[in-house]
Amino acid sequence: MKLTILGGGGFRVPLVYGALLGDRGEGRVTHVVLHDLDAGRLSAVTRVLAEQAAGLPDAPEVSATTDLDEALRGADFVFSAIRVGGLEGRANDERVALAEDVLGQETVGAGGIAYGLRTVPVAVDIARRVAKVAPDAWVINFTNPAGLVTEAMSRHLGDRVIGICDSPVGLGRRIARVLGGNPNEAWIDYVGLNHLGWVRGLKIAGRDELPRLLADPELLGSFEEGKLFGVDWLQSLGAIPNEYLHYYYFNRETVRAYQQADKTRGAFLRDQQAHFYQEMRDPSAAALAAWDRTRAEREATYMAENRESAGAGERDADDLSGGYEKVALALMRAIARDERTTLILNVRNQGTLAALDQDAVIEVPCLVDANGAHPVTVAPLPDHATGLVCAVKGVEREVLAAAESSSRTSAVKAFALHPLVDSVTVARRLVDGYTAVHPGLDYLK
Question: 32, 54, 201, 309: which could join 189 in a potential S-S bond, CB 3.0 to 4.6 Å?
Fold first, then answer.
């Protein structure tokens, strides 16, 4: 099979390739095509992959191109992992938002809206090219904001685009481990939007063990989410929220922590990865070692401001090994080989959540087979969660409308309606601030 990775010069690509190296089954990927607009980044990542594959028989062939149609032609699967505006764009998203005392995180609040406004037009163009050049390909979307971008692409690709995220999978695995169960055998009752979901139950051997966790303060406070949100808050919710809900439940504390940090997350990653790619200009540099060292630092500092504001301490070692690549490989194998499995994915609603329409992309457990991903029926969310999900989905729809119609009015509306902005005046200033620093937003009229 042929796998095309869009954003193939990106930093996470070696994780995906490493997962492929361990797949020796029938119907495995034999050819990986990396596509990126930056030839230098492509060269650096190709070197890392070559060192990963050194000495391994039958490793997937790797090629690289800056031509999109060439990359797509003949693809069985397309991984979309682009970053429009690069990490400089992410740093600007954070800076403009924090200057207005609102959150600038890349998928949540003002920063997520700005990133979506830049990314959706590009993602839609990619979807159209896939539909024309590789109509039989399955698209697996890594690009953030994952739910929003997947919904934009689904308007052109239907159910042949599926969004993935490692956050709910990591959450489920942490809960299963702390309960003494095998994460691979647990059923996770999870529902919401990307970076806005809750675990309401976790079954091990047919028994829901979440009530036992919620009733035990010592056990509940022993893992990442317990430390981040606090035992009392989790018990009052009666559920375990996705870590990104910390931005909602503790918004003022998080904004203050980000404002006081030496660097925003985007600026840190921009400088860190710039150093890595600069190092790769030396042909004698050990590419894999440099990449692995940089990745370890990246993972260890993930959501550092949130953990600091909550007094949660450092991340557990078990949470530093990545996860996107495992979800992606499991999804691809289920479709290509009809190896039926259950995964938490971003797919069209299709009646799963009654509060949202059929085409709204949500994040829920799905049964996956050769015909794609099929969302599992879930119980309704409580009112407070339904309200938040509907509000954020409404914001996403305004982002899609702005991108489709080039409407500045819709862009202002998206910012103003977001629960973490809550001011029309601030929304207007945010649009002014973002259009000033992002040439990619000059389409807003």
Answer: 201
